[in-house]
Amino acid sequence: MNSWLIISEQSDFSIHNLPFGSFSTPYRDQRLGVAIGDYIVDLKACAQKGLLHQAPFSVHALEEPILNKWMGCGKDARVWLRHWLQYQLTHADSELHAHQDQLLLPIDSAHLHLPVEIGDYTDFYSSEDHARNVGKMFRDPENALLPNWKHLPVGYHGRASSIVVSGTNIHRPKVQFLPAGSDVPSFGPSKMIDFELEMAFIVAENTELGSHITTDQAEDAIFGVVIFNDWSARDKQRWEYVPLGPFLAKNFGSVASPWVVTLEALDAFRVAGPIQEPKVLPYLEYKQDMHFDVNLEVYLQPDRGAEELISKSNFKYMYWNMAQQLAHHTINGCNVRIGDMMASGTISGPTPDSFGSMLELAWGGKNPITLKDGSTRTSIQDGDTVIMRGYAEKNGIRIGFGECRSKILPSI
Q1: Which of 214, 257, 308, 411 can pair with 189 through a Cys bridge, CB separation 3.0 to 4.6 Å?
Q2: Domain with 230 in it: what CATH number?
Q3: 3-state helix, strand, coil in the chain (%, to 5)
């Protein structure tokens, strides 16, 4: 497909992508849009101008400021709109082309918002390489994985209120921690702030309490995926995680990229997942390829410095896929709601340059990272910006996610 818009071959937002987001400008209130090249298609303006009169759904859902109501229209509506947009953007005689001055705006002129109202948030722990690395550092190098890890997608319920959109900076949290060599806790600004490279999917279906979603049904209940940085305070985490798991070490801030890439856009990048041994229980079995080949990169930019690539990973490295995560989350009858967000957990690969956290890259502080300015890092310093990017590329098709960017500011 070739668009009448000029779109760079390296653009994240090709005609094959069409991710959804929420934006505003000084002249347009907060509303929904679709990214295409260097532009945004204003969906509210399209609906109000009558371009969507043939839509098999209520176009009022596209006049909302966030995606929740639109996601509730279902997969068929999403697929119809995707095909409509692709037609409008590839035909010079389309209504969108004729009214482009009213319906398109430069992406750089827009302020991007968190695209969904997140009711509940779950963070999984589904990368075997990450779990094994953490186990080697803090438990037993010979038996790094806990006994349950290969039988179920481990996860915990996190805090939805502190998830923010890319570009939001986070203050270093004040925490209670146990200093090395002491048995008396201290309190103060965390000394071990870390990023976690993750992907997160957004639920597009309401279910009843007592029901569950199977792996066959799961992808119909998932709207799309964003890049996700789960900021962590490692010194607090070590002190608090026994016996109930993460709490204040995780809930001071997490950052999501603003554009939601749909599963339809990612369909061409499906790959087989790892062989799961021992064999999983029947409710976690799945049929088609449900892992995705998405390249992930992490950059660190010191205050007043240039960004540097510090990690290259891939979403395909996950042991447990999104369908298994959602099936497991609901197998006990837990209901889900439109807008719920579920993060993958840190995505690490098999080599040291593919680790998805500073904890692993610096191996618990034993192997500091040296930056081009000569400074070193074992954790994130005040003024450091962490930038995450992701893209899938195959047979001339490129699907990107945009940026997930956030700076650590001093404690207040």
Answers
A1: 411
A2: 3.90.850.10
A3: 25, 30, 45
Q: Which of residues 113, 129, 158 is at a domain's end?
A: 113
Tokens 């064999």 locate to: 279
Cβ burial 32-71 (10 Å sphere, 16+ → b, else e): bbbbbbebbbbbbbbbeeebbeebebebebbbbbbbbbbb
Is the CB of residue 247 less than 8 Å from the CB of residue 191? Answer: no
Which residues are catalytically annotated? 130
Residues 324/215, Cβ–Cβ less than 8 Å: yes
**Global confidence as pTM:** 0.97
Cα 263 from Cα 161, distance rounded (Å): 25
pLDDT (tens digit per residue) in 38-94:
999 999 999 999 999 999 999 999 999 999 999 999 999 999 999 999 999 999 999
Angle at 394 between CA 391 and CA 92, to 5 degrees: 90
Strands, DSSP E only, in 197-316? 197-203, 222-230, 232-233, 254-256, 261-262, 270-271, 291-292, 295-301, 308-314
Domain annotation covers residue 58: yes
Q: Which DSSP helix (H) or strand (E) runs through 169?
A: none
Q: Is residue 8 part of a domain?
A: no
